[in-house]
Please model this.
Amino acid sequence: MADVRLSGVHKYYGNVHAVRGVDLTIKDGEFAVLVGPSGCGKSTLLRTIAGLEDPDQGTIAIGGAVVNDLRPRERNIAMVFQNYALYPYLTVKENIAFGLRARKTPEIEIRKRVSEAAEMLGIGGLLDRHPRQLSGGQRQRVAIGRAIVRKAELFLFDEPLSNLDAQLRDEMRTEIKRLHHEITTTMIYVTHDQVEAMTLADRIVLLREGKIEQQGAPLELFERPQTGFVAGFLGSPSINLIPAKLVATADGISAAFENGGTLDLPRSRAAALREAIGRPILLGIRPQHFSRASGAPLREGVISYAAIADLIQPTGTRTFTTIKIGGVDAIAELQAHDVESHGERIELAVDLNRAVLIDPASGQVIN
Amino acid sequence: MTSSISLDSAKPARGHAIARVLENRLPYLIIAPAILILLLVGLFPLIYSLVVSFQHVTMTENDRSFVGLMNYAELFRDARLWEALGHTAIITVIALPLELLIGFLMAQLFIDRMLGRQVFVALLVLPTVISPIVAGATWRLMFDVRFGPVGEILSFFAGEPVRILWTVNPSFVYPAIIICEVWQWSPFMFLLLLAALSNVDQSQLEAAELDGASYFRVLRAIVLPSIAPVIAVACLIRGLDLVRIFDIIWALTEGGPGSMTETISLYTYVQGFSQFETSYTAAIAFLVIALLTVITTVVLKRMELAR
Model:
């Protein structure tokens, strides 16, 4: 068990500046997820922690000791690769035992740990097979088994679920989460999938162009994004961003859209927004913050909005409806039966207390 | 009326049928001339010499009557033939593993990206593109006792004049042949193994590094199994070539001293073109064909099994 501390880490590939000064501390036993769009440097950062890449600048410390000059094998790290990287010519049992044999573990201990791991992952019946005889999900379990028997100080996962189909991915995600509860080792997990990031992480580290954009607990990032990028990256469907301008009105501040419409912003936020009056903004409203108006009086900060349902996408549990706000398409997430047909006129309640206002020039959130 | 309709509709159908036949047969038609020529220059001589091997044709005697298996029976009484096969086996068994090992070590050296790698690889592969007879002649000069640089270099290290008659001294003729052979053909192994090694799955190697596996463990568990098919094919190609080895030895020793380095190809040549035992030579050729067929079949079978 160990904490991980990165300070000022840079990595270049020729002219490409892949990692641009990352400072990051991951606490002992924490499940940290590095997430971001492809090319954001998340995999490079993980490989740098593993020692498979050398940082061009900066230090990496695991359990308090700087490991920059240690080879990967000396860092006591276990890693699960995207393509599983199982040894094709060894059986499942030999694959799992490989690291233990390499480290001269006594044979009795090896047998014990392999059967423990096999039981934990439900692959006891596959031990004598070769990787090519296994399905994708089974290979993934073997790869995880190979990592856990080592009892390493640190677990690294490099997009481990991206080669699996959707259903299996959900299943394995749950298992990885359970695994972390059982073995409580520090884990660093790389993914481009925001659902994986939200569901697995104790802490999400959102990377963009080689830098940390924001880090924190999943709901903290979701509810209090610091930039438009974070607001847009997390959440599915994505947050609606509607160009508007802040204008002062008789009893507060409104967002005035390009097509002439306005939405009154909650009074509670007026003080904070006073400085930004007259400036262009992007009004960010999450699809989840729409609901069908019930006719009951609305809470402070919740306004009613009449819209025409355009596209309707039922998912079974919820229904996504495309509506127009300020002349722009926006998606509202409603109850399954809230809207039935294209062109239907619906009365919506929009919770603007949790709306995110973004400065379009800097991309920063206006608080 | 009805008949004219059926005629009209039959015409395009027939054209369609011709087109379909053409489409199906066209590839065969196109390769037919090449196949014919190959049969002419390949199969005909083979069958002709098979026939000759059952006759008793020599330079002086053009008797075309069949003598049954006489030539083949003679093979088993011919001690020089079996010695020649033994010499061939010695050279193959020593040179092939050496070429494989040296080729593998060279490939290991060049597997990492390095400055000027392509230039070095191209230079190292040069010996393979030289004609074997030229390679043999060059090494004969290199080994020359008066002018050769090999003796010169050995003298330098020994600190006293070293005079070795490489191509005559019975203790040195085999080393000379094998040095020349290994020099020329290790790069071939190197090239194939370099390609095979660069195809070994990188993430498996990384996983093994994180697992803390030693070089030899990685070699045994990951690298060798993954390049085994290439090694097998490379050994088969080189092995067959080595069994037929001729030019290098002809240039270096001409099979001498005496018949000490006479391989099966040299012996066949001598029988055919200095003794002019045409029928007997044909019988030797078929013995070699039979031997090589057995070896090739066994190796290919084992490769299939390993897959």
